[in-house]
């Protein structure tokens, strides 16, 4: 081998989500979406968990998604900046309620469809391949209120309808699709991940896994429809990844780490291998959870597996079998012990570039399907000068080390990797905290946590650094 080059045609780019960047939350006949009722501040987490019911917006809260960074009105300018960096690929998501405002409408909303036509056309004009997430933490609120969102089997039909419309409409513009963003997130943030709200005293785990089954069926149906409409389509699944390390070499700790990883692999095992793994069947049995399946479900899953595996990677995790050891960090929504060998970001996420290489190898060993890193990055507080320029060497350092690890996985280990789209290539609203100050982008957006600012875009130091990385296909990491 000896080479340390990435393949020609490697898809360099960046990633966003409609609910965190579009804004214009009721413009163009868009309906209300789950994210539109999730406030910033202390109530965000209880609402995101499905423990606090908030089905409408009120005057007491601030809702960051309503304007976000207003990509809806700035998409031409933003895509031109991505093109200036040399993006080969732009990962974005569709707002379901922009296409079907209530989710169950008889006809799709033409204004919403035209908006995405315009976005894709703008990408293609600049030679940028769209990578589209069909559902990224996004359910029309009407479906939450009327049928309980993904706890209902009816959701499969509504999702199927959405897929038929978008696959037919954009079949000549979009080749790469992801069915659900971080599908395993519904176990951790059920309202954000799947629009689930729990009633007092019900078996929450049973509700979550039944909803998961409905999403897995919907994903298989999407894959089937996609390949029928355009055999050139490539359909992927998407996992919030990051290996769980054992706290010590005690076999109990090692076993605990395997169990933790399986919680997340379960979804991808089904989407990639086409059946419920035996460990998941046993786990559901032990918890007395009976998944209601319909005739033909197992066959559908088996015959419609995904073409590639995509994932987000921010950090690794650490677990112990000892209940006394509980020095957990606040890193994201995945509880983890503090790893003494790693530094952490300002939000407690542990920085582990080698963990990315480990994750790539584990996923490739497990599935033998092409992989795609569709989120990776460092959330940090940026201090711009008067022109909006940010000296973000900390972000460059984080990305440089992760790209090196990614290249090692490809060149030293033989992992098949399609591309790399760092998260929040332009500053956007944080999904977990609702903040603007937790920034990831190469492009600074003038807006603060309270919603004040001009929305002016400006290039950070990392913008010019990443441009050089793409230009040299990852050879010049500066």
CATH structural architecture: Alpha-Beta Barrel
Query: What is the count of structural domains?
Result: 1
On the 0-100 scale, what is the average pLDDT? 95
- Sheet of most strands: 8 strands, parallel, barrel
User: How does the overall form come out from the CA principal axes?
Assistant: globular
Radius of gyration: 21 Å
Name of the level-1 CATH class? Alpha Beta
Oligomer: single chain
For the record, give the distance between the C-alpha atoms at the N and C termini, rounded to a whole number: 24 Å
Side by side, the strands of the main sheet go 1-2-3-4-5-7-13-14
CATH topology: TIM Barrel
Q: What low-confidence regions span 5 or more consecutive residues with pLDDT below 50?
A: none
Textual characterization of the structure:
It is a single chain. The chain is α/β, with parallel strands linked by helices and 478 residues long. The chain has a single domain, classed as Glycosidases (TIM Barrel, Alpha-Beta Barrel). The protein is 38% helix and 14% strand. An 8-stranded parallel barrel has the order 1-2-3-4-5-7-13-14, surrounded by 4 helices. Strand 11 (343-344) and strand 12 form a beta hairpin. Helix 3 runs parallel beside helix 5 (110-125), helix 7 runs parallel beside helix 9 and helix 9 packs across helix 12 (297-303). It is globular. The two termini are 24 Å apart.
């Amino acid at each position: 081998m000896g080479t340390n080059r990435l393949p020609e045609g490697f898809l360099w780019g960046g990633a966003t989500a409609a609910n965190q960047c579009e804004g214009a939350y009721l413009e163009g006949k868009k309906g209300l979406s789950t994210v539109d009722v999730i406030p910033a501040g202390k109530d965000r987490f209880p609402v995101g968990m499905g423990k606090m019911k908030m089905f409408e917006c009120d005057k007491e809260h601030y809702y960051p998604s309503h304007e976000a960074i207003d990509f809806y009105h700035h998409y031409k300018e933003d895509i031109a900046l991505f093109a200036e960096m040399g993006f080969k690929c732009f990962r974005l998501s569709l707002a379901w309620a922009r296409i079907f405002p209530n989710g169950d409408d008889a006809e799709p909303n033409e204004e919403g469809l035209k908006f995405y036509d315009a976005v894709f056309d703008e990408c293609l004009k600049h030679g940028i391949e769209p990578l589209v997430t069909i559902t990224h933490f996004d359910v029309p609120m009407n479906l939450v209120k009327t049928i309980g969102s993904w706890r209902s089997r009816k959701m499969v039909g509504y999702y199927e309808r959405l897929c038929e419309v978008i696959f037919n409409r954009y079949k000549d513009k979009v080749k790469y699709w992801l069915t659900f963003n971080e599908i395993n997130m519904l176990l951790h943030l059920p309202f954000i991940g799947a629009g689930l709200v729990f009633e007092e005293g019900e078996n929450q785990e049973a509700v979550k896994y039944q909803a998961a089954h409905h999403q897995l069926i919907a994903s298989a149906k999407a894959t089937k429809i996609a390949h029928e409409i355009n055999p050139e389509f490539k359909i992927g699944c998407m996992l919030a990844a990051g290996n769980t390390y054992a706290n010590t070499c005690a076999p109990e700790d090692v076993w605990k780490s395997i169990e933790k990883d399986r919680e997340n692999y379960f979804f991808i095992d089904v989407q990639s291998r086409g059946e419920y793994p035996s460990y998941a069947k046993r786990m559901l049995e032990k918890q007395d959870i009976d998944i209601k399946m319909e005739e033909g479900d197992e066959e559908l899953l088996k015959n419609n597996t995904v073409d590639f595996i995509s994932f987000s990677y921010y950090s690794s995790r650490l677990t112990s079998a000892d209940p006394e050891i509980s020095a957990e960090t606040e890193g994201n929504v995945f509880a983890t012990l503090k790893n003494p060998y790693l530094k952490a970001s300002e939000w407690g996420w542990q920085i582990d570039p080698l963990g990315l290489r480990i994750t790539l190898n584990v996923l490739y060993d497990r599935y033998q399907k092409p992989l795609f890193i569709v989120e990776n990055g460092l959330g940090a507080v940026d201090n711009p000068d008067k022109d909006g320029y940010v000296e973000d060497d900390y972000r460059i350092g984080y990305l440089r080390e992760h790209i090196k690890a990614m290249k090692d996985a490809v060149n030293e280990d033989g992992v098949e990797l399609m591309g790399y789209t760092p998260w929040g290539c332009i500053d956007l609203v944080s999904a977990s905290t609702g903040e603007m100050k937790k920034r990831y982008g190469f492009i600074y957006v003038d807006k603060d946590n309270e919603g004040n600012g001009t929305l002016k875009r400006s290039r950070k130091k990392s913008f010019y650094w990443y441009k050089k990385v793409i230009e040299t296909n990852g050879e010049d990491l500066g």
